[in-house]
């Protein structure tokens, strides 16, 4: 049994209580040091800052060495680094054969580019709902949306929690659909002992600054298909075909090559990420146990098929009833007053972004006409809480979060009454307007 915590027994900061020890503890991000400096200086002195040329030259580069190591970590045969995770998704869809007017089933719960990648290559986004227990794309929703016009599925492993790859890969095979895994949140995640990104036709990752493996910007496309890997190479390299002349261009394509600077950073960051992933898992398990004891906040359900989880968000499900009816926004305000970095994901389902308001598909039909995602809408509006993955690198911060939740719950009736009083002037103002 834990010893009584006097700070927990006091009032929350928002009610005039003392700060919780550890609430300001932050792990540095990104973690870097002598290995990164050495790697960057090696590129500087080499004079080879560009990563281009033939496939063989690319593979022998600093970035090529990272590609091989990263592909091994996720259990795939091929890896091709690109400029960013958004480009990775567009590249995978184009190389996979998505053409103008093809329908692409996309998530409603993710960052916006998981859906905008499809129209950027001519496809039409079709929005799938979320599973209420896992927050991942619902296999039932995906299956209900498949039509004769469906060409691909963009499957997101939201927050680093793998989606149901057993069911969704079977659906893709049954209907002969391209399956692109958006793994921007899921560096290091595994399903049944095999890395995400290798279950579908292509796996796309981001190395943007906030990600669990960061190089400022950058991305990679993984694949186990020789045919798709050749097309990915060509489309990222201005349409070159390896067996043809260097100045012969055969496909309308982009220049999406990563620089050697980023490859050098990523090679060292990968070594750190393998250790950090396990540390985050340990601290997440610690926090989950504490919150289960307190009640009112639940982590996403445990699934034995998830054999390793690379966190981007640590996601919590908020139950207002357990906190005397305290609205989520006021619960968040109480945590913010404690100095804790917690949010509510991306705030809304993807399709509610203005970019989709006037978007049209086949026959001029609005892409929003069939978008019905009540689960995702409810999760975004009422339930979801998110903690960034870097917080899981600080055990003092993890403990402070649990302590803060415990004392907020102890004073939930007072906080709920306070929230109701504060809501009255706003309601009167709205009525008079």
Globally, the shape reads globular
Structural class assignment: alpha/beta
What proportion strand?
5-15%
Give the C-alpha Rg: 23 Å
| Number of discrete helical segments | 14
Tell me the number of structural domains: 2
N- and C-termini, Cα separation: 55 Å
What is the highest CATH level, the class of the largest domain? Alpha Beta
Secondary-structure element sequence? HHHHEHEHEHEHEEEEEHHEEEHHEHH
| Residues in helices, as a percent range | 25-40%
Number of strands: 13
Known CATH architecture of the largest domain: 3-Layer(aba) Sandwich
Can you summarize the main beta sheet? 7 strands, mixed
Strand order of the largest sheet: 1-9-8-5-4-2-3
> What is the name of the CATH superfamily of the largest domain?
Type I PLP-dependent aspartate aminotransferase-like (Major domain)
List low-pLDDT spans: none
CATH topology category name of the largest domain = Aspartate Aminotransferase, domain 2
Average pLDDT number = 95
